[in-house]
Input
Amino acid sequence: MESLHENKKHKNLNIQKCGIIGCGAVGATSAHTLLGSGLFSEMVLIDINHKKAEGEAMDIGHGAPFVKPVNIYAGDYPDLSDAYLVIVTAGANQMPGETRIDLAEKNVKIFKQIIPEIVKYNKDCILLIVSNPVDILTSVALKLSGFEPGRVIGSGTVLDTGRFKYLLGEHLGVDSRNVHALIIGEHGDSEVAVYSSANISGVDLDEFCQTCNKCIDHHSMRRIYEDVKNSAYEIIERKGATFYAIARVVKRIAQALIRDENAILTVSSLVDGHYGLYDVCLGLPSVVGQNGVKQIIDTPLDDDELKQLTDSAMKLKEVLDSLDF
Ligand SMILES: NC(=O)c1ccc[n+]([C@@H]2O[C@H](COP(=O)([O-])OP(=O)(O)OC[C@H]3O[C@@H](n4cnc5c(N)ncnc54)[C@H](O)[C@@H]3O)[C@@H](O)[C@H]2O)c1
Output
């Protein structure tokens, strides 16, 4: 098999270069986290407010001597011509009480400006969509870019899956890294907790509870799901925005891409046939490597979870049908 690294070189892309469009709370925190990761040697920050991008590039860049050398600067779309990864975090954020879907119309308008500009200068990069509603905007970016589906990836339910593992780990008194449990579907109000296959290092939840005396009954399962689903509302009500954990998610996805890890992450990408769903982007466990999403994994679901996933997809499709892009 041709090495993916050679493939990228052939296309004149610099695997150690990324662009971030949108330097608000999420974009700037992601840039800061990525700088600390050592994954990139060149980072371009683009924002409609160029001064903000300049200020963030200066402030974040001044930390480089304490990590690894990185050329980080405020730029413009032509600077993306050889970037392997372009991360889009531009657009309106939720106000207290607002749902992610409420942002769709505003942010589709912004994507209609941004995506063609990226494609004008770079037709070979991976697009990582973070702006909300992320599943809708991943579908929009896929259509506007004309890229093959595996190269347009949304952060999907990677963050929600992290929140689920964290809360289950807290409840059961185990390291969240030993919790294997997924949130799939929309990154939003119709997301689905896959309890049927959730396990602690291979031991299913019921069995695990018998050994540790930490009961996980229907009531606590429901509460943990609601807490995961409502995390962003709770955080936004207290501090106005969420940005630290999503920045770690951006870094985790970038790492899987650059290092060709074949990591399984619940990113959002085009679903075409899995679970009888077609033509919609949503979060499912997917193999992520240097060319993007290589494969979606058909994780087992019980009847209720399958119904919830189908409803989530239908909801996203309805929103997509109502939008002009
Ligand atoms: N996927 C997730 O899990 C997740 C998590 C948190 C936030 N988000 C989303 O990320 C997005 C950004 O959130 P934030 O808190 O950083 O918002 P923010 O308001 O702090 O930043 C948005 C930035 O986008 C810029 N921008 C707006 N229009 C632009 C354009 N046409 N071109 C370039 N830049 C433009 C703004 O100038 C601003 O700097 C929101 O949609 C938010 O809902 C997603």
Remarks:
- Residues 91 and 107 are 5 Å apart (CA to CA).
